[in-house]
Amino acid sequence: MSEFQYRTYAQDIIFGSGSLARLSESVDRFGWRRLLLCASGSARRSGRIAQVEAALGERLAAVYDRVQPHVPDFQVAEVTALAADRNADAVIGLGGGSPIGMAKAVAAQLAERAALAVVAIPTTYAGSEMTPVYGITHHREGASRKITTTDPKIAPRLVIYDPRLTLDLPPEMTASTGINALAHCIEALYSITRHPLSTAAAISGLRYIMRALPRCYANGDDLEARTEMLMGSHLAGVSLSTVAMGLHHGLCHVLGGAAGVPHGVANSIILPHAMRFNADATASLLAPAAEAMGSVGLSPEAAVEAAAQKIYELIGGMNLPQHLREVRVKEADLPHLAQQAFQSRTVQNNPKPIREAAQIERVLRAAW
Question: Rounded distance, CA 281 to CA 284, Å?
Fold first, then answer.
């Protein structure tokens, strides 16, 4: 890695148990006076929205608590209109990748009208809070497609990590978003635009995740494990925030937008197969990941295979789907999904060149 180039983003990060209590002072420091909150119905039921409402009082101009997975275009239109109507100067994403993605999408839609700051309060391990990437699922004539966009202007300005907000994260969401964070580390390690900071963050994040994720899944009330896992998730987000993604995430975006597969579940199914597909081009780059998973004394290719198998077994041990057929993806749809993925700019950034859709279809069939 003798040459590299990357862009960083101005972000204020607050990490620590109970740090949600610092939301009010942070908002005052930035001078925001009219904020819009994006969340899902589960955030209302868990009392998280009530906590934000209590912290912000009259500064909270509106709440949209119906965010659906994969950021559908019709909801982006609804929330954008609400933000404009209430003259919001900041939008908060509270929850996982979809509410935070919605906040980013709304900021992007209103960029020409006003500079709308994004605040992220993650309650899962999806990692969207650290990246300048958002995706919108467009629905047209019975078909749907998720289109991702990178825009430095919508990287969250303020991120609050409070491990206490993850204590009631259900085991399935803990597992699936945890594997998503793990996938961030893997893709950052072999990204075509990797650099020393992304590599260091990926290795450190991977070690936290491998140590903490099984503990969080087994005992969600373990605050120490939750704190370590959130730290790993943060580092995973840092590692991916300034590098290009490849086949793995590009394919997961297609599975989410076109087949409705939850993003964390798609990550769980695809990750071992993407690692195997890329192994001959990336084995030496994945050596730190393999080592962190206990694969030592093996050739680089054998170490990657051992690491992929360990991830596959970890996924099964947490009762996550391991095959696309388990999440109702039809075998007959695989060629179309492969063709759609082949057109993705993200997929074309893969470290191992992808020259035809048939290569992607083979990965999908292995995962099916």
Answer: 8
